[in-house]
Design a protein that fits this description.
Layout (H helix, E strand, L loop, with lengths): L16 H8 L5 H8 L5 E3 L5 E3 L5 H6 L10 H9 L8 H6 L11 H19 L32
Antiparallel strand pairs: 1-2
Helix pairs in contact: 2-6
Length: 159
């Protein structure tokens, strides 16, 4: 999947229930998940394949993560994303998608961080008063990885 695929619009790839459910089901690369969030935080591609904080990036993000935070691969980025979800939006994953969490055998850092990413995206929509469409464009969906700890080919190792 080419890195620019998520940046289909200046605001990022359009969100839908179908897309967020695909993320939760581990049917997209970790990078694609990050590319759903980066433009919404004000990061933009710099032409070299890296996303950098821009003028619209909040100072706290820009200072902590001047280049693309790896929300799935790196714990500090995932923790920062979790903490940035306003308290009143912490349950949107359950309320809007009916997501009850992963089963015990599915609890891997990659998957729990994907749930955090989806909850952040839902909170982002809620803060703007934007609805979540049922359907929308989807990237080419992948099979779930054979090894959920390692993820899809090309996914960064988890730290």
């Amino acid at each position: 999947m080419p890195p620019a695929e998520a940046a289909a619009t200046p605001a990022g790839y359009p969100l839908s229930r179908a897309l967020l459910e695909a993320v939760l089901a581990d049917r997209t690369s970790d990078r694609f998940v990050c590319e759903l969030i980066w433009p919404r935080l004000g990061y933009g591609p710099d032409g070299s394949g890296t996303w950098s904080a821009g003028p619209a990036t909040e100072a706290s993000w820009r200072e902590s993560f001047p280049i693309e935070p790896q929300f799935i691969a790196q714990r500090p980025a995932s923790v920062a994303l979790t903490r940035s979800i306003p308290k009143e939006h912490k349950q949107l994953l359950k309320e809007q998608l009916g997501f009850g969490g992963y089963r015990i055998g599915e609890l891997y850092p990659r998957r729990t961080r994907r749930a955090t990413a989806v909850n952040w995206l839902l909170a982002h929509l809620a803060q703007r008063g934007e609805p979540l469409p049922e359907t929308g464009p989807l990237p080419e969906l992948r099979e779930q990885p054979a090894d959920p700890v390692a993820g899809h080919p090309g996914d960064l190792p988890i730290s």
